[in-house]
Design a protein that fits this description.
The protein is α/β, with parallel strands linked by helices. The protein contains 16 helices and 14 strands. A 6-stranded parallel beta sheet has the order 2-1-3-4-5-6, sandwiched between helices. Strand 3, helix 2 and strand 4 form a beta-alpha-beta unit. Helix 8 packs parallel to helix 9. The longest helix has 34 residues. The chain is globular.
């Protein structure tokens, strides 16, 4: 039995535009969901994973599969449907799963033979068995899986060409921020894989650099932090010689022992959601964690950096409290916190989130011709109508935020600080230049976007 597992591409996602900007090579990640599915697949299946981000293969020239499995974030849905249609035309059954299939079940149902909602661990073998017997069901619901006894992902199935391998050690997030799909999809319970499983899987990864995809690697409660420390101790003890980056909440900087252990285990960078420079913005988003009294972001960032761990700060522009000037204010806040990189996104209503429900009920979703418009749901396009900012306004704020933060003098200042503090100036430079080159690409993308959608969807546009 032959199985193709496909990660569809979306050329509008800047991080995959490797040809346009060579710096993006440093940011190509592996589609872990497909490697996990492959790990759950019995040996009688011959598996090929296709990651279209590395190039779209000549599918008709490939041997005919018995089943095609497609994964998709919302931004990949359009391309997913094209691939599905092509295979279905040949009579090959297509199953789709992942976050978009779960949040937009009816839309996906119309376009594929079978849909897996939720996490696949509990149902994937059944899907394969049913395929073998020619009785694939229309829907399987995996819900929230137990992840304390899962086989390792098949890291061997994707060839080179990636900057980073990928691994997951926990699922779920109790925070339920209003713009984020994670709690809706992976639940509020923080589920942890057994540490020996994680270490064994880490050993199977070929790449020296790894992305730990957990939404919050250290969790929020004391027992989560204790587990993170145990995990870091075990990774350090296994002497894996890997360097990795992860996502965490700002409390990562609260505990010196945690930081020292993380650094010893190979942690070299952390992605932290600061989201907004204003308390009103944080309240808007439901990000109460960042509002804790006495929290000093600059001190937290410095403590993390002292362990030679880079900090990427993520911010959202277009909140209901954001007024003209928010771009510069965000860049100034990120500089004041001292982050090494700033990643600013447009507030985007993703299906399944509380923000989606709110914006939909208020008639504020501007790009709503689905499924075609999903390709713009990359968080790098202003797909909604913003309270105090027009289409031009919100784009100008984004550009001024990026231009301010990634101006050459500011980059050189960060590199100099990095040198002065004996950190990693070269990595700071490469990271900053990578983002800076994307600012140019983004400006072109915004101009195209305004040409295509400004007048019709927003009623305004000075292109
Ligand atoms: C790592 C990650 C990335 C990485 C790697 C992406 C990749 N290709 O693997 C990077 C940084 C590149 C990235 C980019 C983006 N991301 Co991202 N990312 C994640 C993150 C943190 C983890 C994903 C992951 O690897 N999970 C581990 C695997 C094992 O879980 P899984 O993917 O859910 O797969 C399971 C099930 O869904 C199911 N399943 C999945 N696919 C399939 C397919 C079949 C056939 C079946 C049967 C089952 C199945 O089975 C798996 C095992 O249970 C998630 C948050 C999250 N918790 O999901 C956000 C998340 C998926 N990302 C999100 C977004 C918005 C993006 C971007 C659009 C935005 C951006 N500018 O960053 C881009 C788009 C990239 C693209 N290719 O189009 C949103 C997606 C929401 C949505 N509705 O689409 C999420 C949920 C975060 C959020 N805050 O809401 N991302
Ligand atoms: S933004 Fe981060 S903290 Fe908030 S719900 Fe999503 S994963 Fe959790």
């Amino acid at each position: 039995m032959r199985l193709y597992l496909i990660n569809p591409s979306n050329p509008l996602v800047s991080i995959v535009r490797v040809k346009e900007s060579r710096w993006n090579r440093y940011r190509v990640w592996k589609p872990l969901s497909l490697m996990v599915l492959a790990g759950l697949t019995p040996p009688q299946w011959e598996i090929t994973i296709v990651d279209e981000n590395l190039g779209v293969p000549d599918y008709p020239a490939m041997p005919r599969p018995d089943l095609v499995g497609i994964t998709a974030f919302t931004a990949q849905a359009n391309r997913a449907y094209e691939v599905a249609a092509d295979f279905r035309r040949l009579g090959v059954p297509v199953v789709m799963g992942g976050i978009h299939a779960t949040m937009c079940l009816n839309e996906v149902m119309e376009r594929v033979d079978s849909v897996v909602t939720g996490e696949a661990e509990g149902v994937w073998r059944q899907v394969l068995e049913d395929t073998r017997h020619g009785c694939l069901k229309r829907r399987y619901d995996g819900g929230l899986a137990e992840i304390d006894n899962v086989p390792p992902a098949r890291h061997d199935l994707l060839a080179g060409g990636y900057a980073l391998g990928a691994i997951q050690t926990t699922r779920g997030c109790p925070m339920n921020c209003n713009f984020c799909s994670v709690t809706a999809f992976n639940g509020a319970r923080y589920r942890q894989r057994p540490i020996p499983d994680v270490v064994r899987e880490f050993q199977l990864i070929r790449e020296k650099h790894v992305l730990v995809v957990d939404d919050n690697l250290i969790g929020t409660r004391p027992e989560h932090i204790a587990r993170a420390k145990d995990l870091f101790r075990a990774i350090a003890q296994a002497n894996l010689r890997k360097e990795w980056v992860a996502q965490a909440t700002v409390n990562f900087g609260d505990d010196e022992e945690l930081l020292a252990l993380a650094a010893k285990a190979g942690c070299r960078g952390v992605f932290i959601g600061f989201e907004s420079p204003t308390p009103e913005g944080l309240l808007d988003l439901g990000k109460k964690f960042n509002l804790l009294k006495g929290r000093d972001f600059r001190a937290s960032v410095r403590r993390i950096q002292r362990h030679n761990i880079l900090v990427v700060g993520s911010f959202i522009i277009g909140l209901d409290n954001d007024k003209p000037g928010i771009g510069k204010r965000t860049a100034a806040a990120a500089s004041q916190y001292g982050v090494d990189n700033l990643n600013a996104m447009f507030l985007t209503p993703l299906p399944g989130t509380r923000l989606w429900d709110q914006m939909k009920s208020e008639g504020r979703i501007a790009l709503d011709t689905f499924p075609q418009d999903w390709k713009y749901y990359t968080l790098t396009f202003p797909v909604a109508r913003y309270k105090h900012l027009s289409l031009d306004g919100v784009i100008e704020e984004m550009i001024s935020c990026d231009r301010d933060f990634y101006s050459m003098p500011r980059i050189l200042r960060r590199v100099w600080c990095s040198l002065w503090r004996r950190r990693k100036p070269l990595i700071t430079l490469v990271g900053n230049l990578s983002y800076r080159s994307n600012v140019r690409l983004n400006c072109k993308a915004y101009a195209d976007f305004k040409c295509q959608h400004g007048k019709r969807r927003y009623g305004v546009s000075k292109v």
